[in-house]
Structure formats: C-alpha cells, structure tokens
Specification:
heterodimer, A: mainly beta, five-stranded mixed β-sheet, globular, B: mainly beta, seven-stranded mixed β-sheet, four-stranded antiparallel β-sheet
C-alpha cells in the first residue's frame, strides 16, 4: 500500500458544484495532515491544514477520519479559479513530508 | 510563512554536465527538503537537507548523483550530477519551521537535459 493515495482525477465539474476529494494514508502514527493546491507550472501552496476536529475555511472544508485513515477536502460552490491539482500531504514522521499523487480539478462554465 | 527564493528558475543543460540549484530562505527554518516533480506527476522527495551534516536520502536517490549542501539554517543547494535526459524534471526545495508543520516551497527549477 502506498503511503499516501488520492482519488484519481480529473474531476470535471460545472461552476457552482460541490466536489469532494479523499486521500488515504497508511501510517496510523501520522499526526499532521495538509491539503496543498498546485496550479499548472507553479509550486504547491498550502491550502489548509487538517485538524482532528475538522477545519473549514470559506468554501473549503477538510475532515480527518483516523479510524479509516483518510482525509477529505470538500469544495462548495466551485469557481473557475478552483481549477488546479490538489495534493494531500501526510508526514509519516516529524522529519519528512510525503505527497499524494494529486487530484486534478477542472471547473467549467 | 517564510519566502524561499530558488534559482535558476529554468535551465537547459548538456548531458554529462552538472547543475547546482540554490535555495535561500528569508528566515531560519528547521527543515529543508528537495523534491522532484516529473511532468504530470506528484512530488517525489529526494532528500532532507540537514544543517551541517550529510543529507538524508530517500530510496532511489544517492549522494553521488544528487549532492546536497546546507551550510546554515537559511540556505541549501542541490546538484544534479552527470545529467542525462532522464533527469529532465522540475526540482523544488521546501522548508518547514517546525516538525509536523506545513512546508512552503521555492518557485521550482525547470531542468531540461539535451
């Protein structure tokens, strides 16, 4: 099993739609979780951290399910500008970051 | 979050030569990492750059091919040695202030080996 696995993409959704991505991880000892966004030909940028109690930031909601070892990202009211690749990051230990393969989202008018 | 300046932003190199990529952080960071991103794929961790000591390499990456330096808490270099076309990729450095915290990235170096 890979350390971090994500939903395969691409996800093609219309503007205004709600879309959700999942990411599973193998190391039950992982303590921190993050979602990054990467635009084409750009570096990844932190979208949000994922807390045990869940985390909401505007249209974005991140959830953690430790029992099933996955994190999720929900995007409501999708905008054209949300089109990007979304990467989940699960540090298997305190000293390195492992990225998922990424889920590509394309929002169309 | 800190800002990382990475250079060069891109380069086209002849096979058999070496390229050194530099990353400068505007504040001290505990950890620095080097990643490779092949076209259309996610980031693969090459190594963790350790200040004042040898880097910690991931499986499949060796010091002779990717020597890394980190003389202080704000600067690191990655050298891609004896390049071949298979080394064509984007190389990214990142830093993190504390363990288990988010990382931030340099702008990346787009390397093409011909």
């Amino acid at each position: 099993r890979k350390e971090v696995e994500q939903d395969p993409g691409p996800f093609n959704v219309p503007e205004g739609a709600t879309v959700a991505f999942n990411c599973t991880y193998s190391n039950s000892a992982s303590q921190s979780f993050f979602w990054y966004r990467q635009d084409c030909r750009k570096e990844p940028k932190l979208l949000m951290s994922v807390y045990s109690s869940g985390n909401e930031d505007g249209r974005f909601t991140a959830q953690l399910n430790r029992a099933s070892q996955y994190i999720s990202l929900l995007i409501r009211d999708s905008k054209l500008s949300d089109s990007a690749t979304y990467l989940c990051v699960v540090p298997p230990g305190p000293h390195k970051l492992i990225f998922g393969t990424g889920t590509r989202l394309q929002v169309f008018p | 979050s800190a800002v990382i300046s990475q250079k060069p932003s891109r380069d086209i190199c002849q096979r058999g030569t070496s390229l050194t990529i530099q990353c400068q952080v505007d504040s001290q960071v505990t950890m620095m990492f080097w990643y490779r991103q092949q076209p259309g794929q996610s980031l693969t961790l090459i190594a963790t750059a350790n200040q004042g000591s040898e880097a910690t390499y991931e499986s499949g990456f060796v010091i002779d091919k990717f020597p890394i330096s980190r003389p202080n808490l704000t600067f690191s270099t990655l050298t891609v040695s004896n390049m071949s076309p298979e080394d064509s990729s984007i190389y990214l450095c990142s830093g993190a202030g504390q363990v288990n915290t988010e990382a931030f990235f340099g702008q990346g170096t787009r390397l093409t080996v011909v």
